[in-house]
Every structure is written in structure tokens, then in C-alpha cells.
Amino acid sequence: MPAYNQTGRQFVLRTFHVSIRATLAFICLAGLIAAVSALFPTTASAQQLRRCAGEGGICRLPYPTEVVYGARGRTTSRFFDRRSVPCSNRLFGDPAPGREKACYFVARGGGYGGDDNYGDDDYGSRPDRGEWVACAREGEFCDFRGRAMVRYGARGQYTQDVFRNGVRCGNDAFGDDPAPGAHKRCYVRQ
Questions:
Q1: Which of 20, 22, 146, 149 could join 189 in a cystine, given CB atoms 3.0 to 4.6 angstroms apart?
Q2: CA 20 → CA 5, 17, 27, 169, distances in Å?
């Protein structure tokens, strides 16, 4: 049934309500997709990955990077700042039980030949060079939101890993003591 406004022009009220409902539904759907994407970030795309070792082998890294371990879509990953990493269930856990797994490192944009960030006397960047910000002392909680790379250690001896929504700054979280006897801190990468 048509309706009339004050000037006598006819308009269809139902069409207006349908278009508002469709617009609101679209906005809600887009918001839901954005929220889910933020809560569940994906690992590196296949184009960025370079195979570095089969299960049981040693993955040699050209620079500090994320290493992905697994098989056929069932993977896990960790960030490493060292030249070699054992490609094993012991280090990564078993993301694909019963399947043969491999390690892949995340390649940088223009390939990876000659792009070595290890340097001669330093094993990657140090917290005092401005890339890392202190977030907690040993035993405290390093609080951040989302996924972040966190470095733990003291006096040039560090280990690091990728964590989500914070981490307790200590040997248990990082798997070893990078600087025995020293008072250590956690740094989050900015």
C-alpha cells in the first residue's frame, strides 16, 4: 500500500525498510569478518615460505625469521633468531600426527640471497638499537595485545619467540636460560 508525504508525493515505505535492513546486515557481517580475522591471524602464505629441512633435519636460516613446521595445512610456527633450528616434534610439538613433516622459513620480499642480518659480532638486532621496547622484568608479565615477537635475556644473550596476548617473562616461557645468573628482561618488538 503506497504512503504519501506532506507534499503529496508517493513513496514506498517498505522498500526503505528493506534497504536499511540489508545495509545493517552487511555492516554486521563485515564487522564479524574483521573481528574473526583479528582473533585468528594466519601464518605466512605459501608464496613466502622456503623449505629448509625435512622432519629430523636441521633448518639453516639466512636471517632471523619465523619457521613454520608441519604438513598439508596442519602447521605451527615460532620465531627464531639463530642460524640453525632442529626440524622436530620435540621443538615444535606435533601439529600433524602420523604425517611426514617439514620446516619452512618465511622469506623476505625480494628473495633471501645475501640478505643476512646476523652481522659479524652481533646475533641479530639488540634491544638498545630501538627496535625492541622493555615490557617486563624476569618473573613479571609482559602485557600486549594480539600476536607479538618477544625477546628475553640480558647482556647481549637473548632468545625470542612469538606469543599472543602477553607472556610471563621467564625461563619456562622461552624454554631455556639465555643468560644464566643475570637479571633478565623481556622486550616486545615494535
A1: 149
A2: 19, 5, 11, 50
HSE-up of residue 116 (Cα within 13 Å, Cβ side)? 13
Task: Find out whether 44 and 66 touch, Cβ atoms under 8 Å.
Answer: yes
Contact indicator for 121, 128 with CB cutoff of 8 Å: no
pLDDT in tens, 45-55: 555 889 999 99
**Are the C-beta atoms of residues 161 and 93 closer than 8 Å to each other?**
no
Chain segment 146-179, per-residue pLDDT in tens = 888 899 998 888 888 889 889 999 999 988 898 8
The CA R_g of the chain, rounded to the nearest whole Å, is 25
Q: Rounded to whole angstroms, how far apart are CA atoms 70 and 67?
A: 10
Instruction: Give the burial class of 104: count Cβ atoms within 10 A of its Cβ; 0-12 exposed, 13-18 middle, 19 or more buried.
Output: buried
Those residues of the chain that have pLDDT short of 70 are 1-20, 22-47, 109-131
How is the chain split into domains, by residue range? 3-39, 46-106, 127-189
Retrieve residue 3's grid coordinates: 504512503
Q: Which one-letter amino acid corresponds to residue 16?
A: F
pLDDT at residue number 134: 85
